[in-house]
Amino acid sequence: MRSIRERRADSKYRTSRRNRLLLPWCLLLLCALLGLFDPTPVHAQKPGPAAWEWHTFTSDNFPLASGGVNALLEDSHSRMWVGTGDGLSLYQAGAWKTFTAEDFPLAPGGVNALLEDSQGRIWVGTGYYDNAAGSSKGSVSVYTAGAWQTFTAEDSPLAPGGVSALLEDTLSRIWVGTSEGVSVYAAGAWQTFTAEDSSLAPSEVSVLLEDSQGHIWVRTWDGISVRRYGDQPCAFLRYASPTSGQTTSLRTTSILTFTFSSPRSTLEMGFSGIDAESDPDRLLFRCQLVGYGEEEVPCASPGYYPALPPGTYTFRVRALDEDLMSSEPATATITLISTAPPTSVPTPAPTPTPRVIEVERVVPGLPREAAVPLIGSLGGLVIAIVLGVMIRSAVRRARALRRGFNPYEAGRPIFDPRRFFGREALIAHILNTIHQNDVLIHGERRIGKTSLLRQLEHRLRTMNDPDYQFIPVYVDIEGVSQAEFFHTLMEEIATVCQGAGHTLPTLRFADSAAAEYDYRDLMHDLQSLLDALQAASPRAVRLILLLDEVDVMNGYDQLVQQQFRRILMKRFARQVGIVASGVHVFREWSRQESPFRNLFVEIHLDPLEEQEARRLMTEPVNDIYDYDSEAVDLILRYSERKPWRIQRLCLEVVNRLLAEKRTRVTGQDVEDVYRHVLTEEAQSSAGQGEYPAVVPARLPVAEEKAAYQAKPEGDSSA
After folding, report:
1. N or C, fewer C-beta in 10 Å, the chain?
2. What DSSP designation does 557 have?
3. Per-residue exposure over 455-493, b if at least 16 CB sit within 10 Å of its own CB, e if not
4. What is the SS3 assignment for 673-699?
5. CATH of the domain at 266
């Protein structure tokens, strides 16, 4: 019989053997359980090839812009922007939306670059090849809160060519690379660099990059350029000058008070800037006159602000260097005080009440017996004054009718500043711009371009600028042949300078025939004259050429245009400025092949504002002839607020009054005169003395006025 010890040992052996047999099965069961409850997310597990799924979008089966895809962007709202060769598409919440130049104010051409800036705006760079011009063109569009804004080389200082790259740097400036240069946008202003005016590598820009030190790297097909930053620029206030002529330096003070005798005053603010890295001529400025306008606007010294009422204003100016880095604002506080008597507004007489007037209270210190005669005398004096004014007005009206007074001028430029109304804001803008820029004014015929140039001539000649002596020279190019062009310019310049009392040096043009005088002679004479003028003036001399009807130059040889550009845009850029005007000149000069492309600040001359048009109607005949409100509304309607047509209608209306010995213009007068003018214009256009004019049917005057008042604002259709 086995002992207890032997039985225990045998049992222990069998248990151990059973455990060894069960252990593999337990491990296998544990592995199976772990496989069923794998905590790893499904999307993190590496799938096999069969698990991939592709979704393809094409313009054939989705509303995606056609053409090859050139750019992709996911914005901060998880929206996908897709730029193609024919437009821009947006993918959001499983749906597509496509933007094209035909349906939205998006720049035309294929989309080559996309960018979301720190403000959440979407920048879209486009480009296309213009077969007619033989060059590439491009634009930049900005999408903000559902609205588009587009910049092109034709209407802004954007580098020409198709846009190929976009970048926002750490200072929130937007850099744009094109096929011909680089532009940077900040604070509402553009600055452009090309291989012609900087050391930028030529050829198309393909990559823009900002490094850790804030330098901008530009890769082109011909090399790499780096834009290194220096210190920020500085802006300085130099002087302030109101209407009274009390020019005061701002070098030592920034708080000024001016007193003037008129109800309102103009104000000139002179300023300058400096930067260690930038050419002074490439500095830009941004101005703000708090109390006059709350927005900061581009400007040039001197800033000109017309018709300011008395009050306290704060002037601020910032300088921006070539990289659009801004200076700290220079500020000045200016108080304008008028000594003119306040304009009183008559108040209606109080309704009499049945009570006894206490004369002692009306005239303190006088007894009733003395106050009553005094009040009666004052009342008689007031009545006498009113009667005197009425008699004087009646005499003036009778004299005007007897003499046939009619101040309106139809078809001729306005030379007299006292007879020029409106355009004040535009003139101020041009005067602020012309110190460092050239201006191109374009608009339809007879819209007032020549009159505007003549008013600029007067303003520049009488401008009180402590640093610049402006010499404006008006030159009418119409009818000037290519062979006589340079001689005509110099002849007009010399005539104006001599008439102003300047001593002229010996000039070649005096002994040269017009056809023999070329651009080399003009360069010689212009340099000699400017040297003589500068030697005689303590201020910097700046010659301003006011060139009218420059459309004629489009017919000149390309060589002559290049020579003119070379003379005025390089050698004499600081001493000679240009204000040119024409009809179709902007369309021609904005072409890629034009020598004058991107050299001018472009201004389109529009019809007058309504208030300006009303002044042109009423002020020349104030206190002599009166216009019914109905007549004024009809003239505004029929003239479309164009100055020459206002003058023509008013001229004919006053002639009608003179013939009938009347002094009040009615709506029926305007209606009859307008039909007469239409008939004459139709006959003139046809070139036949008795051409049967087709006069548009018009509503009766009352209905015409109602229709005009109900017309949406901005609709100028007849």
Report:
1. N
2. -
3. bbbebbeebebbebbbbbbbbbbeebeebebbbbbbbbb
4. HHHHHHHHHHHHHHCCCCCCCCCCCCC
5. 2.60.40.10
pLDDT digits (tens, 9 = 90+) for 139-166: 888 888 778 888 887 777 778 888 889 9
- For tokens 């004499």, the residue is 572
Three-state secondary structure of 123-185: EEEEEEEECCCCEEEEEEEEEECCEEEEEECCCCCCCCCCEEEEEECCCCCEEEEECCEEEEE
What is the model's pTM? 0.47
* Strand bridging mode 439-442 / 576-582: parallel
> How is residue 158 written in tokens?
């954007």
The Cα 99–Cα 143 span in angstroms is 11
CA distance linking residue 490 with residue 500, whole number of Å: 15
Q: Does one domain contain both 222 and 238?
A: no
Instruction: Output the domain CATH number for residue 550.
Output: 3.40.50.300
Reported as a pLDDT band with limits 50, 70 and 90, residue 547 is very high
Decide if 490 is inside a domain.
yes
Q: What number is the average pLDDT over the span 475-488?
A: 90
Instruction: Give the number of domains in the chain.
Output: 4
Residues whose CB is less than 8 angstroms from the CB of residue 218 and which lie 6 or more positions away in sequence, other chains included: 177, 182, 200, 201, 205, 207, 208, 224, 225, 226, 227
Same domain? For 250 and 310 the reply is yes
Domain that holds residue 457: 423-604
CATH code of the domain in which 80 resides: 2.130.10.10
Q: Report the pLDDT value the prediction gives residue 98, as an integer from 0 to 100.
A: 82
The answer, yes or no, to whether residue 41 has pLDDT greater than 60, is no
Residue 298 lies in a domain: yes
- What is the C-alpha separation between 491 and 494, in angstroms, rounded? 5
What span, in angstroms and rounded, lies between the C-alpha atoms of 33 and 230? 68
Task: Identify whether 716 is part of a domain.
Answer: no
Is residue 354 pLDDT above 50, yes or no? Answer: no
Question: Where do we find the tokens 């903000």?
Answer: 144
Q: What distance in Å separates the CA atoms of residue 506 and residue 490, rounded to the nearest whole number?
A: 13
3-state secondary structure of 627: strand
